[in-house]
Fold these 3 entries.
Entry 1:
Amino acid sequence: MSLVSHLRCVCCDQKYPPRKAGFTCPACGPVEGMFDVCYDMDAVAEQLTLSDLLNAPLSQWRYGPLLPLETRHAGRDWPIGWTPLTESASLASQIGVKRLRIKDEGRNFSGSLKDRGSSVALVRAVDGGAAGVACASHGNAAGSIAACGALAGMPAYVFVPQGTASGRVTQILAYGAKVFLVAGTYDDARALCARACQRFNWYNATVAYNPYIAEGAKTLGMELAEQCFADPPDWVAVPVGEGSSIAATWKGLDQLRQLEIIDWRVRLLGVQAGGVAPIAAAFHKSELTEVSGTTVADSICVRAPLDWRKAVSAVRESEGTFITVTDTQILEAVRQMGSRAGVFAEPAAAAAVAGIAQAVRNGIVDRRSSVLAVCTATGLKDVAGAQAGLGSALRVAADLDAIEPLIVGG
Ligand SMILES: *Cc1c(COP(=O)(O)O)cnc(C)c1O
Ligand SMILES: [Zn+2]
């Protein structure tokens, strides 16, 4: 039995029993009434101690008592989570901090942090006897749902906005999912997906709308807690689109603190692209205003985010802040992460490092700080998206004399 006690609406604070409730608060509706999944923490404390963790598998399933799943669930052998930390002294000195670690979520099953939540969604879809699973996405969540759908043997249907990078679409097709390229924005794709799920009895695995996805996503924070156990960073920087990932990162860290597995806190730095920064604006104004800009960081281009309340309160609780960065800064960070840390990040993922660099310049992050950037996805899915900041290859004859003049000056 899972140890979920109730669902709480983050808008009106009403509590609902988990079995009867849908995905969003009936009083507040599917745009405002996002649920937070709550646990019987006394029961969790009996099943999740430091010594339990010593023997637990090196995947996100090690946090079983804090997941909304039965103990012996269908996904328990899926290889999700436990991604590496990479430290780079070279990148740290370039952006002007004492230490810099990167949590490389590009090393997840389908290449992004979305696998954490998608796997939980698929297990629940299987348990609930759904006819299929669906989601709206910019590509990473869709790729992840498609990959987990393949693991689960469940048909997957994904809705992505037209203009989604072809590498992303190809990856999804390889997993055998049906891809709908929707004429419209991500927000349009999300609305269409919700209606299709109703009509065709698919399980709706869209980030933020489905509250159980964040429960998988929070294992990112739990892993950080363990991997930085005796050596916590001062700041953790997370790129923000819907707001789910940063809120979930905080929730994971916070739940392990409640269980007294760690006794420290970090400050969160939420990073948005300057053109599309509604949550950064809401952090300062406490209300959301829809925006209309765009950014090279497609995975965080969410103009009307659902999880802004969760994101704002997580960052407030952490005594952190939000920052915005330009596309030029983001592309520069792609180059810096690749050339100094050996991590190829997609633009949205590199925004974390760009955000730290900007926060150092603004005096928000002290130069003596130890910081951790979450690299949310690999750059390999959308190679064209990264290209603008990287210069180009050199065309040469197959001749040593032809390359020599090109080497001088690097
Ligand atoms: C989903 C995603 C994010 C942001 O997560 P939100 O929950 O939408 O805030 C950041 N980077 C990448 C690469 C993503 O795929
Ligand atoms: Zn409500």
Note: The chain is about 40% helix and 15% strand.
Entry 2:
Amino acid sequence: MVHVAAVESRIREAERRAGRPAGAVVLCAVTKTFPAEAVVEAATAGVTHVGENRVQEGEEKRPEVERLGGGGLRWHLIGHLQSNKVRRAVETFDVIETVDSVELADRIERIAAELGRSLEVLIQVDLGHEATKSGAERSDVPAIAERLQRCEHLTLTGLMTVPPFLDDVELVRPYFRELRELRDELNATVCVERPIHELSMGMSHDFEVAVEEGATIVRVGSAIFGARG
Ligand SMILES: *Cc1c(COP(=O)(O)O)cnc(C)c1O
């Protein structure tokens, strides 16, 4: 039993509250730790984007999902990408949401060129400064964006963040707002010619607040699939 419809209707409610058009936000179903069968079930319920945080798990699951009839999905890498896994990530994913340095951008571009692949990318921004979380410093983001916009095989579409987990979701709101402001700043400076749109932010416990603050992609796992083991 996957709860896609319930999550979709909560997204639509939040869009309405915020005065945003219906369908402004895409649901990326986070399928880490859940089996291929659950991914296919979510696809049958209307999911079109899925997210995995580990390269190896995505690499194993995607062919299995496709064998079971779950084709046509867009696979997002939402976890930290180590440079020695770039080749496998480029082979498996359609969207890499976790570019966090110029060096990583260069490496992804070089390997995408070698493999003749085109990918969508987002820059992961570290706003909470927790020891366990990755992402680029806010001050490094313009240089990374500039570099990505010159990569022939990569299309920079936006920013992603994983804010601190706080029980009171109102305390998370400023992080979502900060990501939106950073996007708008980039669009007024280094991204004037090719503005970026996507804001990937919001998880099971805080996605409604993220939608109110302008999320265009929410990454939701446990609210759809249940608790992870
Ligand atoms: C696991 C994960 C999610 C989804 O978390 P839930 O709380 O299960 O919705 C979203 N984003 C990232 C980066 C994750 O690793």
Note: The two ends are 16 Å apart (CA to CA).
Entry 3:
Amino acid sequence: MHYRKVSHLYSILKPSEIIPIKYPLFESKGISVDVKRDDLIHPVLSGNKWRKLKHLLLHIESLNANAIQALGGRYSNYLHSLSYVCHLLGWPLEIFVLGYSNQPDTPMMSDARAWGAKLTLVDKQTYRKLRERSFEYTNNMVWLPEGGFDALAIKGAAESIFELSRNYDYLITASATGTTIAGYCAAVAKYQLSTRILAVTVLKNDDEIESNVTQLVGHADNCQIIKGYECGGFGKHNAELERFIEFAREKFSIPLEPVYSGKSFWALYNMAENNWFPKGSRVLYVHCGGLQGARKTA
Ligand SMILES: *Cc1c(COP(=O)(O)O)cnc(C)c1O
């Protein structure tokens, strides 16, 4: 069954709850920590990916187009969510994946194929060229840039902030292209909130995040990049991070994965331990989902 219209998808989405975390460490430091569970929005359509896609999809629909081309890495959460949503809508999708044909499919790639996406593997050189293209619409075909980096994507990300019913001093989450936190920065500026957006970089691109946010929002005034939790780079992890993920599952009942949410929640915990947050701080962690990325290649 196809949902046909983008707005028909709203009925399958769950609200993103806010859950307070009571834990002796946070209490002893005099800070409050809430978690916004964007990961609960949908079991497959991952939190911030749905937010980033929503207005792009509505725009594509308004153009009367539905065929989409996009690109990403072999574990891309963005391509995973996009493939699923195109499957639900019955829209043809072609994805260009950085990789070689002798490599086994990742779980993301198998899912995308099962949902009817056409996969084309491209080498590094080709990928680098494709990466330079921004949103395009030609011959009824839409080209989506890597990670959904686009002004329409930040409109959806901003909705996370519009849903908050109280003020926070700090909002912390994981950042790769910076598109999601660009949305948060835009919303915070619009409402003239004093919230500082802390972007935990999960890859070694800390300069890129700030310039990407500036490109989308016009400034990066209320955002700060938190480094030191990359564990060597994108998708890389170590035993300490893995132990923390296990610890968080036990103590806070929050499922984390090692690519994004594990690193960013670990940053929050570590910063609290090191008295980074002043006493009395109200801290919001946004869980952006992405749990599919934790699956290993069979
Ligand atoms: C994709 C993703 C991010 C990064 O989002 P950007 O908008 O590219 O910065 C963060 N967390 C999770 C769980 C993701 O899947």
Note: Residues 158 and 184 are 5 Å apart (CA to CA).
